[in-house]
Amino acid sequence: MFHIVKLRKASDTYGRSDIKRTDGHGRPNNGNGWKRAGAKCRRRKVAGRVFGALEYLTDAGTAGLMEISTALGLNKSTTRRVLCSLEYMGYVRQNELTGRYEPTFKIVDLAGRVLQKLDIIELVRPYLKELMEQCGETVHLVKMEGADVIYVDKVEAYHYNFRMASRIGSSIPFY
Known about the structure:
- By secondary structure, the protein is α+β, with helices and mostly antiparallel strands.
- It contains five helices and five strands.
- The chain has helices spanning 39-60, 65-72, 76-89, 106-116, 120-135, and strands at residues 92-94, 101-103, 139-145, 148-155, 171-173.
- Helix 1 (39-60) crosses helix 3 and helix 2 packs across helix 3 (76-89).
- The longest helix has 22 residues, at 39-60.
């Protein structure tokens, strides 16, 4: 059975959310008041902004404050606070010469610690090797994450002079 699915990479929005004007009772408001979100919703907004900035930087490689601000749909001061938090935690750094922000290898370290906890890799590795030997091709173990798959492990065919471009931890659209 096949399913037709419209694919959209979740990280393409980079944490943006639509804010609707209301009168406090869920009705549209043409006035100046924005409905205030509860504490739970504010925490979600903060997390969305922080992870949105981190995802944008990992996609872009390096980016300036205005570029990130525009991509996230935030003003410069809010974006600066988000970046300062990420910088304080060691996930991004600002290049002193260019002023641009870039992700650090702390993300890779974090991903590596997650992968170390996955015992499934140890269990599946012999089967991946056997499958690679039977078909003579590189074999991947992937995990579904929404509309994407994430490379968890791979066994490369050893008879080729070139290597697959796939990297453990990277994701691609599932289709």
